[in-house]
Amino acid sequence: MNRIDISYGGQWYSIGNRTVDEVHREIQEGMAAGQHWLAVNDGEGSPRPAYLLLTPGVPIAVIPVPEPQDPPVDGQAPAFDDPDPDGLPPSWRGPRIHPDRQRSI
Description:
The chain has 1 helix and 5 strands. By secondary structure, the chain is of the alpha+beta class.
């Protein structure tokens, strides 16, 4: 995985040269401490460093961007051979928006 997109505060950011597991672990460890500054890239082309303040109750989406493959020869095949994601998402043990609801996992 070369790039991870981050949706935060209605804006899009990216993280390069890290795995999804590394980013999830950093977020979970930072949230366990109460808050955390996550280093990301802002902008297209030449990225600008930016820092997102992660705090309980602030939604963030971590979206792995798959590596592109060669285009299919016949134009009908899917762009990615493996429709299954790389394993299961990490178990989130952080704060809950609706504490009265049961966890589904």
